[in-house]
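Reviewer 2 asked us to include a model.

Predict the structure of this chain.
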Amino acid sequence: MKLVSSPASPFVRKVRVVLREAGLADAVEEVPVATSALNTADEVRAANPLGKIPALIRDDGRPLYDSRVITRFLDARAGAGLYPEERLWDVLTLEATGDGIMEAAVLCVYERRLRPEAQQSPDWIEAQWNKAITAVRHVNDRWMDHLAGPVDAGQIAVGCALGYLDFRHGDRNWRQGNDALAGWFEAFESRPAMVDTRPADG
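Predicted model (C-alpha cells):
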C-alpha cells in the first residue's frame, strides 16, 4: 500500500501516527508530494478526485481518502482497537473535534499563504481561530477523563491537532487557560509515534 501525503498536513500526520500505533508502518510506503489547495499535484488528483490528502492506495490499486476513512480501515486491518466498540461514539466525536480544530487551523494558514495580502480577511482568520480555540477549551473542560484512558483514534486526532497548533500557530498559545489538556499533551507528544511524525519547520 502507498500513502500519498505531505508531512506538514495534520490530517496526514494523524494517519501516520495510526500506522505506527497499529504496527503497520512497514506495510505502507509513504509517498510525499508537493501539493496545495491552489496547485494540486497530479499524484493527489489521481488518488482523490477532490484533490486532498491523505490518500491511501490499496494493493489492488483502489484508493481510500479522508483521514477518518483511512484510519478506520487501518485499524480494522490491524485489529489495533483504536475504535473500541464500547466507547465508539465518544471516540468518533472526539476524533471529529480534533479534525475540526485541524480544519480551522489550516484555513487560517491558507488565508495568509494563498491569498494576496490585500485580499486577506483578518475577520475570517479570527473566526476560524475562534472555532479552533473554542474546541480546545471544550476538550480541556469535558474530555480529560477520556484522554486519561487507553489510546484511541480520538486521542490521536486531538494530539495531532494540538501539534499543528504548535507548528503553525505557536504565537497563539493555546495552552493558556487549558492546563489539564496542556499537561496531557506534554505526555502524549512524547509517544514514539508522535515523535517520529513531528513535522519539520517549513
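The chain is about 55% helix and 5% strand. The two ends are 27 Å apart (CA to CA). We have added this to the supplementary material.
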